[in-house]
Design a protein that fits this description.
Bound molecules: heme C
Radius of gyration: 22 Å
Keywords: Heme, Iron, Metal-binding, Signal
Pfam family, one: DHOR
Structural class: alpha+beta
Domain Cytochrome c: 326-458
Signal peptide: 1-19
Helix content: 25-40%
Largest sheet: 3 strands, antiparallel
GO molecular function, one term: electron transfer activity
Length: 458
C-alpha cells in the first residue's frame, strides 16, 4: 500500500508544478492508514476503516445493523426495535444519513426529509411547548409537531470573466404547529445530516492542536479568527471541546449518538433516559404514552447496541483519493493562496488514544480546523447553540466532497443544503470568509474551474 502511494506521489511530482506546490504524498490517504480503497459508487462512504482489526469487523457490522434499523412504536412484538417516538423525525439513523452520506432539504410538498429544525425562544431557551427540536412525525394518536417549508428566492452573482452564478436563498417557516403557537419570535435553525466518514479520527485530534489554531481576537490580523466551542458533555459529565454537528455542539461520539436517539427518534439511552425523547411537560399525552423499555428503568436502546452504534459511527473509512489531474493541482495551490486553508486546515496528526489504536497517530487530511467562525449575515440563523452564536458555524471537513453525488444522489451543501454545488457554497461564505469568497469571484474562469476541480478531487 505504502509503495503504491509513494509511486502515485512520484507521478505527481513529475508533473509541471512549482516546488512548493508539490503535494505531500500522504494527501492521497486523507484518513491516514484508516483510508479505504473504494469504487466510485454509492457505497463509497460505507466501508469500515482500514485500521479496524479483523476481530472488530463483526462489531462494525452489528453497529451498521442498528444504524439501518427502522424502529417501531411500543408496544410491539419486536421488543428489540420498539420505543420509537412518540414524536420523532425519522425511524432510523440511515433515513437521514442515507448511505452514510449527507442529507438534503425537503422538496416542495415533501414531508419526510433528512433536514431537521432546532428551535429556541429569542432569549435562547427551549421552546416551552416544542422543546429544542421540531419533530415532524408522530406515532398513532400523536400528531407531528409541524411541517418544515422553505420559500426559495433566487439571486444572481456576477463573477469575473463574464460568468454568473445563481444562489437560492431559503426563508424557513413551519406550517401547522400542532400543539398550539410556539413562543413569540421562536428561532429556527434548519440542518441537514452531515456525512459520516472519518469521525473517530476527528475525535482523536488532540485538543491542544485545535486550540493552537484558534485566534478568537484575530491577533494575526488576517480577518479570520476561529473560536473553540466549549460545551457540556453528558457523556464525560464535564465541559469539553465541541467537535460534532454544524455548530460543534457535541464533544464526543457518545454525546452525538445519544442526542440523535433521543431527539431524532424518541429513544432512551443511558445518557438521555426519558423514553418520550424530546416531548416537553406541555405535551402531557406524549409523556404518558407507553415506552419501549424492556424493564422499568432500562433504556429503550440496549446499552451494548448503543456502544456498537458509537463504534460504527467512529469507524466509517475515508476514501483514498485518486491521483489529481494537473487542473486539480492548480486548484490545490489556489485553495491555499486565496485563504481557504485559514479555516479548512488541510491536515492534523491524531493523538494516541488509549484503547483506540485504529484512530491513533494518523496523519489525516480533513480540511477543517474544527473551530467556529462568523460566516456573516447570509448564513446566519440568529440562533445561538452551545457555545456558538447566531452567525457562527463549525468549519465542515471537506474530505470525500467529490463523492457527494454518487453517494447521496445530489450535491447540495452547507448546513441547510441551500447550495446546489461547491461554487454556490463558496459564494455564500461571508463574515470571516468574505475576503476568500471575494477572491473566488475575482478569479479567471479557468482558475475558478481549477479550484472546483480540486474540491471535486477530495
Ligand atoms: C432526522 C434526521 C437524522 C437522524 C434520524 C439522525 N441524524 Fe445524525 N445528524 C443529523 C443532523 C441534522 C446532524 C447535524 C446536527 C447538528 O448540527 O447539531 C447530525 C449529526 C450527526 C453526527 C455528527 C456528524 C458530524 O460530522 O458532526 C453523527 C455522528 C450522527 N449524526 C449520527 C447519528 C446516529 C448514530 C443516528 C441514529 C441513532 C442519527 N445520527 C440519526 C440528522 C439526523
Ligand atoms: C472563515 C472560515 C472559512 C474560510 C476562509 C472558508 N471557509 Fe468554507 N466553510 C466554512 C464554514 C464555517 C462552512 C459551513 C457554513 C455553513 O454550513 O453555513 C464552510 C463550508 C464550505 C463548503 C461546504 C461544505 C459542506 O459540507 O457543506 C465548501 C465546499 C467550502 N466551505 C469551501 C471553501 C473554499 C473553496 C474556501 C476558499 C475560497 C473556503 N471554503 C473558505 C468556513 C470557511
Amino acid at each position: 500500500m505504502r509503495r503504491l502511494i509513494l509511486l502515485a506521489g512520484a507521478v505527481l511530482l513529475a508533473g509541471a508544478v512549482a516546488a512548493d506546490d508539490r503535494p505531500d504524498p500522504t494527501e492521497l490517504m486523507p484518513g491516514g492508514a484508516a483510508s479505504v480503497r473504494v469504487a466510485r459508487d454509492a457505497r463509497a462512504f460505507s466501508q469500515p476503516s482500514a485500521t479496524l482489526p479483523f476481530d472488530r469487523l463483526l462489531d462494525f457490522r452489528v453497529g451498521d445493523g442498528v444504524f439501518r434499523k427502522l424502529w417501531v412504536s411500543s408496544p410491539s412484538s419486536t421488543t428489540s426495535s420498539d420505543g420509537l417516538g412518540p414524536l420523532y423525525n425519522a425511524r432510523g439513523c440511515q433515513s437521514c444519513h442515507m448511505r452514510d452520506g449527507r442529507g438534503r432539504p425537503p422538496e416542495a410538498g415533501e414531508a419526510a426529509s433528512s433536514l431537521l429544525v432546532r428551535l429556541s425562544t429569542p432569549d435562547g431557551r427551549p421552546d416551552p411547548t416544542y422543546g429544542v427540536q421540531l419533530q415532524t412525525f408522530g406515532i398513532q394518536g400523536h400528531p407531528a409537531e409541524g411541517r418544515v417549508v422553505a420559500d426559495w428566492s433566487e439571486e444572481v452573482v456576477a463573477l469575473a470573466g463574464g460568468e454568473t452564478a445563481r444562489l437560492r436563498r431559503p426563508a424557513w417557516r413551519i406550517e401547522g404547529w400542532a400543539y398550539g403557537p410556539p413562543a413569540p419570535g421562536v428561532l429556527l435553525s434548519p440542518r441537514v445530516a452531515p456525512p459520516m466518514i472519518g469521525l473517530g479520527l476527528l475525535e482523536a485530534v488532540a485538543e491542544a492542536d485545535i486550540l493552537a489554531q484558534a485566534d478568537p481576537e484575530d491577533r494575526d490580523g488576517d480577518g479570520v479568527s476561529g473560536r473553540a466551542a466549549r460545551v457540556r458533555s453528558a457523556h464525560l459529565g464535564t465541559a469539553a471541546l465541541g467537535r460534532f454537528g454544524w455548530k460543534a455542539l457535541a464533544p464526543t461520539m457518545e454525546d452525538q449518538v445519544a442526542d440523535a436517539f433521543s431527539a431524532d427518534m424518541g429513544l432512551a439511552t443511558r445518557l438521555h433516559p426519558a423514553g418520550w425523547g424530546e416531548c416537553t411537560a406541555a405535551q402531557a399525552a406524549c409523556r404518558a404514552a407507553p415506552d419501549g423499555a424492556p424493564a422499568p428503568g432500562e433504556p429503550e436502546v440496549d446499552p451494548r447496541l448503543f456502544d456498537l452504534t458509537v463504534f460504527y459511527a467512529r469507524n466509517l473509512g475515508v476514501p483514498l483519493r485518486a491521483t489529481p489531474t494537473p487542473q486539480a493541482l492548480r486548484g490545490r495551490a489556489l485553495f491555499r493562496d486565496i485563504g481557504c486553508t485559514a479555516c479548512h486546515r488541510p491536515s492534523f496528526t491524531t493523538a494516541q488514544m488509549p484503547g483506540r489504536p485504529e484512530h491513533s497517530g494518523q496523519r489525516i487530511w480533513p480540511y477543517s480546523d474544527l473551530l467556529l467562525h462568523d460566516m456573516g449575515e447570509g448564513l446566519a440563523d440568529h440562533r445561538p447553540e452551545g457555545d456558538a452564536d447566531g452567525r457562527e458555524w463549525r468549519t465542515p471537513p471537506l474530505w470525500g466532497l467529490g463523492h457527494t453525488r454518487t453517494v447521496s444522489g445530489h450535491t447540495q451543501l452547507l448546513h441547510d443544503g441551500r447550495a446546489r454545488n461547491a461554487l454556490e457554497a463558496v459564494l455564500w461564505h461571508g463574515g470571516e470568509a468574505q475576503a476568500a469568497r471575494d477572491r473566488v469571484v475575482g478569479l479567471s474562469p479557468a482558475d475558478r474551474a481549477a479550484l472546483l476541480a480540486f474540491l471535486d478531487s477530495l
